[in-house]
Amino acid sequence: MLLYEEFGTGRHRESSLVRHALGGTHDEALVAGLAGGIGFMYFVFEYTGRPPQLTIVAQAHPGSWVRSALDRLRVPYDVAHSAGPRWDRVHAALDAGRPVFCTVDRSGLPWHGAGDEPAGADPYTVVLAGRDGDTLYVEDTAPTPHRIPREEFGAAWSAHRKGRHEMIVPTGPATGDPDVEGALAATAARLTGPVLGNRFDVNFGFSGMEKLAAHLRDRRTKNGWERRFGTPEAFRAGTRRLYACLEREWTAPGATRPLYADFLDLVGRPAAAALFRESAGHWSRLAELARTAGPDPDARRALFDGFATLVEQSLALERRAVAQL
Length: 325
Prior knowledge:
Order of helices and strands: HHEEHEHEHEEEHEHHHHHHH
CATH class of the largest domain: Alpha Beta
CATH architecture of the largest domain: Alpha-Beta Complex
Strand order of the largest sheet: 3-8-4-5-6-7
Number of strands: 8
Number of domains: 2
Helix content: 40-55%
Shape: globular
Largest sheet: 6 strands, antiparallel
Structural class: alpha+beta
């Protein structure tokens, strides 16, 4: 039996999951904004025998998107962890009409496949939206739920070891008004930093944007894009990832800024919303340039400088926007 009828991703996958699991009563932009909305994280990881792995997370990060959304929606929920799948708990929740948020290794889900190893290791949230005996209905992007045998889902659940078979189960209706001010403050703090309280904070928020722009302009050191992404293979890998990170993966289109601007309009912050929409235009322009770029060494320097200029323009706008949250 399915517990709800609306499936599929709107503009942001995790916000859509929360919205649907709560009965579709909340606007997607509201859910996204309350969960924290936007952020910025920039890293380049090096693996032997592979091109450098660029990672940008443009949505609120780190932290649990689902927990943050439920907390600020004032929706009560239970959280459980276990050494192995607790099917008795899963069945009890579903049979009581309560969807179950689970964190899995997405490479273990047959509709994703093995894919890229680092991406598969990331925590990935899906919703158990019902069951038919030992067959589970899983909401994950598609306009209809995926059917999967319980044991096959359990393997993907167990493969994300850091999650320890986490279950998040909403247990009732909201107990108060949404915590808008708390959400706005959290977003501002995430962008201005510190985020982690350690040496990696330079990779987050406005500091992370500054670092990205500096690396794009760097022509000399090993950290600069000129050297890191100078070969045709590395260039193609880097520009593909840049596009994906700003438009598709761990984000809504436009580095999540348009969706967050809609949230700001909903909660009465039109001036900040306008600035984030303008910034979104620069992020999307950057993503499109990355998507269509070719590995021409004569054009590469001007391209990277153009990328840096767009990052700097977004940064300037977002500093102004945060001051008005």
